[in-house]
Amino acid sequence: MLDTWSTITHPKDTHHIPDHDLIDHQPDEHCICGPTHRSDVSSGVLRWNVWHHSLDGREDDE
Ligand SMILES: [Zn+2]
After folding, report:
1. Measured in angstroms, how far is the CA atom of residue 27 from the centroid of ligand 1?
2. 15-22: which pairs have CB atoms within 8 A and are 24 or more residues apart?
3. What is the tens place of the pLDDT at every residue in 15-45?
C-alpha cells in the first residue's frame, strides 16, 4: 500500500489528500469522501486542516 499524502494549501485551509486513492478527491469541502475539518489556531489566526478520508483507511495509522 502506498502511504503518502498530498497537501494542498489554500489561503484559509489546508487539505490533506491521500495519494493513489480509489476515488478522486476534490480539494474542497464538498469532496465525496466527507472530509473532516479540524480547526488550527496555532499560528494566531484560524485555519482549517481538512483531512480527506482514504478508502483504504490509512489515516488510522496517524
Ligand atoms: Zn476527499
Report:
1. 7
2. 15/50, 15/52, 16/49, 16/50, 16/51, 16/52, 17/52, 18/52, 18/54, 18/56, 18/58, 18/59, 21/54, 21/55, 21/56, 22/55, 22/56
3. 999 998 999 999 998 999 999 999 999 989 9
